[in-house]
Fold each of these.
Amino acid sequence: MSKGARNTRQFLAASSSGAGGSGSSSASYGSGGIGAAARTNDVNTGILDENVLALVFRSLDFDPKMLCTVCCVSRRLRAVAERVLWRELCVSRAPRMVASLTATGAGAGGAPPAPGRVVGGWPALAKLLLFCCGAAAAAVRGHFTGVSRFSKTSGRSFLSRRCRGDLLYVSDPCEHAVPGADDDVGAYRGVFRGFTRSRTRACLVGRQAPLETRVRCPYCGARVWRMVAAGMAPRSAWRRLGAYEGRLEYYVCVSGHLHGNCWLARLTSSDGDSEDDDDDDASTEGGSDGGLVAP
Amino acid sequence: MAPPATDAATTKQEQQHAAGGEGVEVGGDLRLVAECGTVVRLSRSAARMSTTLFDMIEAGCAEGGIPIKGADVGTLRLVAAYCEKHAPHYDPVASAARLRDPFPPFPIEFTPASYAVKPVTQLDPDPHGLEAWDRKFISDLPDNSALFNLIIVANLMAIEDLVDLGCTAVADKMRGKTPDEIRVALDIENDYTPEQEAEVRRENAWAFED
């Protein structure tokens, strides 16, 4: 799995340099069977031209299955997909959420054109929007989801008091029935804005919380912190999800992706036990939330 | 280099060129200059289909030759043929009303032609034979690179309908195919090593699970 993560980062580095491949491979494009006629100008012509690809995929509505298929076709297509196509998919599915994730409020470094880069890469964010990773502990497999709702209010419940300044989106828990258990497992995921500059990360580093050895981020393959073990999982988290007390687990990776699961309590009549930290529960925040994300 | 399908159009243009002479510019045909310098003529009504050309006509700077950077003669002739064919039935309002960036990005069943008043009885869905002509137009293209050039030039000239047509044609070539089939259909070289390819396939298998 670590080798896979290294390869992912290599591809990311290559595409961000704009060359669309390492130096040795770009020489092979010229001799490849791209077109019958000799091309004197840019070798990335025709279907490999990123404008054409963006237009074609726009007419396909950035179907994620098509995008995944096309990534496997050639290196150049994968690079274009990583830079442009996955980004357009994210923007078309969740425009407000993407806009707030890429907004450079703190003005760190140069301001990229909106939206330029996102921590962890666009393919990882697209997978996070559309793929429920299940729960390894309960042997629940991951699956491609339909509509998912991401909410800043839910995210706030996952932040300890000191870190309330961070912005975190968390999805609704995706319920899975587990054979042999009475209760359901809820799997959820989320993403931080600007995790590298967040208080959460500062706290984790400050406490010298160890990175997990056996778990990796299912979205970008990076290493993760186990938040419950680090003492950074607040009570509001399991209350917000409607889970059993303390029976939840979640991980945050170094890129700021969150994934976790919990045992969901049977709904009783005693709902709405919100305390001070859950005051604006989707009423005022509802309009400005990430909203619905469709496949 | 001229594809056989546009022989009729090029003959027409050559006739215009021969008979029209050089001095007819005001109210006459537009002259589009390809990369190699060859001039392709386009009537004003057909040029309305291109938003760029339309704006240029309105602004009064469509006199003389209009260079189209990056377009070769064959592609320009195809574009001109398309515009000439569609010009009499072009409806800019309907074209703009067709949502190209739909949100939500999955199709929602609207009543047909929700932007226009329609009669109760469904008349001939292709009254002018345009769709059949479009299909023939696309299938007569010699190879993939002609199709891709068509999309690029149509995008350059802002002819939305032709861009849609081209992209739909490419999308149809790609839809529902495995990576190998796409490589064959679009003539793309596979530059992955076998290990990299296996890695990429594993990485991108998530969209197909359940």
Note: Chain B touches chain A through 49 residues (CB under 8 Å).
Amino acid sequence: MLQNLVKSVWVPMKPYYTQAYQEIWLGMGLMSLIVYKIRSADKRSKALKGKIFASSKGGGQKTPSYFLRTRCPMA
Amino acid sequence: MNENLFASFAAPSMMGLPIVVLIVMFPSILFPTPSRLINNRLISIQQWLIQLTSKQMLAIHNQKGRTWALMLMSLILFIGSTNLLGLLPHSFTPTTQLSMNLGMAIPLWAGTVITGFRYKTKASLAHFLPQGTPLPLIPMLVIIETISLFIQPMALAVRLTANITAGHLLIHLIGGATLALINISVTTAFITFIILILLTILEFAVALIQAYVFTLLVSLYLHDNT
């Protein structure tokens, strides 16, 4: 199946994937970086909200400092 | 009512598994690979349409720009076929998702910009300042041109998303209004039904026009940078 895939897809498309679309691969890398940044920021903010909610529910516990909240989400 | 209105735009899943990938890959089945020199009617019509579109779209490009012919034709075929399939009742349209359209717009736009900076660095930098700008306005205009450059992929994606989503919402609303009016006034329901038919014809046109506009703009950005 892999041989068939190489023969039918990779061989005719090789000049495109290796030469013509070099800049598009870089664009895809840029897009994946943007997606990674957005998802990690979303994860961090959700963890922070959960921590603040849990600490307010617990009562009597000190809220983590700004440094800890922004740099150490697991603290 | 509100929940039903946007339910058709939710990513579909079957037995808990997302089937968006299958839906995105489905339009490729409608374009069979030609295996003979003279093919059947369907493939011949498709080849004729592709030739017509590619001739018109690639006329402005030089040799470097024409290496993008396959990408541009694939783009217009994919977006056009996806938009048209989305007009079928109860179907899911991938191009209503902003994530999908950004996923198409950002790599292609970045590809054109990187091509420009790689092969024509001075000309690409010169685009940030229009010719004949008065000296005091130069800093502000450079900032404005930079912002307009970075807005291009956002505009590409949001334009397609908004047009297709708005069309589907309108069809949904006016179809619901037609059904609701049948019990109240048949004449009004008939008029609303005529409006629905006209809107559906408009949406067929919008589906093809938006595919053409997306591809044409990518082609123009490429032309500016090659």
Note: The first strand of chain B starts at residue 13 and ends at 14.
